[in-house]
Specification:
The chain has 143 residues and is an alpha+beta fold. Helices cover 17% and strands 43% of the residues.
């Protein structure tokens, strides 16, 4: 029995050891996409938005858009005040439209995916449609 366990252990370890010692082994591809490689599926999930000035936070849930494969749709929550959002990312440029009633655009988000963030941080400007007030924002993807 002890010999069988030893043989099994040796068999399991050999492929790992051979891979680690092979002189021409290539490095594994990076799992962190560059900003320009970020696509719709990287945006899916829960995000935390921080804004400069008063009322400085919000939570966004971005999901697959049911009609546009390369876009996202979801909701934003600012201390219980909810609005709908829809947008996309193209070559590292992020755009999002916000609407309180689902018909008229109440604000727009325009930002850039931060290089080196693996698509987990976006910075830009949020603009109110009513008075065109601009506020810098930072979006960070939550685990």
């Amino acid at each position: 029995m002890k010999l069988v366990r030893l043989a099994l252990l040796a068999t399991c370890l050999m492929p790992c050891q051979a891979r680690a010692e092979s002189p021409g082994a290539s490095a594994q591809p990076s799992t962190c996409p560059a900003a320009g490689e970020i696509r719709q599926h990287h945006l899916l999930g829960l995000w935390r938005a921080s804004f400069e000035g008063p009322g400085s936070g919000a939570t966004l849930l971005l999901e697959q858009h049911p009609e546009l494969a390369d876009s996202v749709r979801g909701a934003i929550n600012r201390d219980g005040e909810r609005a709908l959002v829809a947008g996309d990312v193209d070559d590292g440029e992020f755009t999002l439209e916000e609407s309180f009633d689902g018909v008229r655009i109440s604000a727009t988000w325009s930002g850039t995916v931060i290089d080196g963030s693996c698509g987990r941080e976006i910075r830009g400007d949020w603009r109110s449609a009513g008075d065109r007030t601009a506020r810098p924002f930072v979006l960070r993807k939550l685990p």
